[in-house]
Amino acid sequence: MFEFLDPLREMTTVSVILRMVFVSLVGAVIGLERSAKNRPAGFRTHILVCLGAAVAMMTGLHVFLKLKMPTDISRLGASVISGLGFIGAGTIVVTKKMSIKGLTTAAGLWTTGIIGLAIGAGYYELGLIGTVLVLLAETVFDRIGQKIPHTPEYTMEVFYNEKTCLDQVLRYCKDNRMTIVNLKIHTLDGNGPSMYAAEVKVRGNTRPEPLTEHISQKRGVVSVVGL
C-alpha cells in the first residue's frame, strides 16, 4: 500500500525534511483542537512532542543504518514513550470538587508522541491514520461520550454536633445503594459546643432533595447544604 512513498522511507535528506514537516503539521492539527478547548497542553506543546519523538526515532535509525553502530534502534523510541508519561501527568489536575481533568489531553500527548515515532520511522500511512483517529476521538467521540448516561454525583455539606451522627449518615447512603466518592471532615471553631462539618460526595440514582431532607432529620444533624 502506498508504494509511491517507498523512496521516502530511506534515510535521505529529502525524507528527513519531509518527516520533520509532516510531524510538525500532525502535532499542529491535534494541538489546535486542544487549544480551542483551552487545555493546558495545546498547539505548541503537541508540535514539540511529535517533533521530539520523530527526532528520537530518526536518530536511532541514523545510528544503526548510517553509522553502522551495534545498537537497538527501538531503544530511543521506548524511552520517548516512557518519558511522555511525565509530561502527560503534568496536564492532569484534581479540582476542589475531586473531579479529574486533563486525562484526554495527557492521552492525546502520549498518542501524538507515538505518531511522531511512526512518522520518524517512515511509516507515513500509520501516522496519518493515527492523526485522523485522534481527532475523531477528541471531537466526534467526545460528543458521543457526553450522551452516554452517567450515574449522577452529589456533594453536600453536613453540619452536626454529635460524632456518631456521621456514621448514621454514611450508613443511610450505603443502605440506599449510594457510593461514597469522597469525604472531608473538619471541626468548626467556636466558643460554644463542638460543631463539625463533613463534605460528603456520593454517587447514586437518588435525587438530592429527598436525600438532604432525610439526612437533615437525623439526630445530631444541625443542617445540610447542597454544594
Tally the helices: what do you get?
Answer: 8
Helix content: 55-70%
The fraction of residues assigned to DSSP E strands is 15-25%
Structure classification: alpha+beta
For the report, how would you describe the main beta sheet?
A: 4 strands, antiparallel
- Average of pLDDT: 83
Distance between the termini: 57 Å
Number of strands: 6
Radius of gyration: 26 Å
The helix/strand series, from N terminus to C terminus, equals: HHHEEHHHEHEEHE
Number of domains: 2
C-alpha geometry:
elongated
The neighbouring-strand order within the major sheet is 4-5-3-6
Q: Uncertain spans, ≥5 residues at pLDDT below 50? A: none
Concise account of the structure shown:
55% of the residues lie in helices and 16% in strands.
Structure commentary:
- β4 and β5 form a beta hairpin.
- The chain has helices at residues 13-36, 43-65, 75-89, 103-120, 124-138, 140-147, 163-175, 208-216, and strands at residues 93-94, 100-101, 153-160, 179-188, 195-203, 221-226.
- The chain contains 8 helices and 6 strands; from the N terminus they run αααββαααβαββαβ.
- The termini are far apart.
- It has a 4-stranded antiparallel beta sheet, covered by helices on one side. Strands 1-2 form a two-stranded antiparallel sheet.
- It folds into 2 domains: 3-147, no CATH class; 153-226, ACT domain (Alpha-Beta Plaits).
- By secondary structure, the protein is an alpha+beta fold.
- α1 runs antiparallel to α2 (43-65), α1 (13-36) packs parallel to α5 (124-138) and α4 packs antiparallel against α5.
